[in-house]
Every structure is written in structure tokens, then in C-alpha cells.
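Course assignment 3, question 2. Fill in each field.
Student: A.L.
Task: Predict the tertiary structure for the chain below.
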Amino acid sequence: MDDLKLTKEHYKIAEQNGISKELAYNRFNAGWDAMDAVTKPIRYVNKELQEKARANGIELPISVIAGRKMLGWPEEKIVTTELNAKKKINHYIDIAAKNGIGKATFYARRQRGWTLEKASTEPVQKVYSRYKAI
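Answer field:
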């Protein structure tokens, strides 16, 4: 195989090894040897998580599981959150924007345990200065 670029055969090998096209491409462009990029296992991914996700009816590439683990997601959330969850979040961010709620406020509320609905619709409390304007 030609080591100047990744070929269809490289990507097929990557897929057989549970490595996404994106990860193989990123590894190769980061200076990895082509065969290493498509064969070296991902360090911090538990293939059991991929099987658990599959058992939940969710097909997750190993690269997604690795990313979620790096973000500190608990295993239960990794295997139960579908890939299109970001679209759902973006929908609520749009609702929040229409209600005058910024992204940072929305995410801070979510981190405090607020529901998507409440975080995107509850009016923002105004902070008033205790000093009068002169």
C-alpha cells in the first residue's frame, strides 16, 4: 500500500479494527505511519461500552466513546446517549435565545441540574445595582 495517503484499503482495515475514518485520517495527518494509524488500538476505550451501547440500540463509533470518556462522562451516559442528542440541545438553545437566555446561562443551568425545558424558558433574573445613578 502507498504510504503517501490513506487508501480505501486502509480505511477498510481501520473499520475492521474499530477505528473511525476520521480518527485514522487525523492520526495519519498527525504524522503516524499509515498502518499504525489504522491498526493501533485506541488506548482509553473499552470495547465493552460499544457493545453495551449496541445492546441499547445505539451504534457508537469507538472514537465517539473515546471522546465522551475524555470529557468525563459516566459510563451509563456514554452508552445511553444517542449521537443526535446535540441536535436536541441545539433546539433548546434556540428556544433559550428566543427567550433572551444566553448559551452560557443555559449551560450553567443544565450543570445545576435544570431540565432542558426549564433552562430554556425560565426568565433570567435581573441584577440591580444598589447604587443609584447620579
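Instructor remarks: Residues 85-98 form the longest helix (14 residues). The CA atoms of residues 19 and 69 lie 16 Å apart.
Grade: pending
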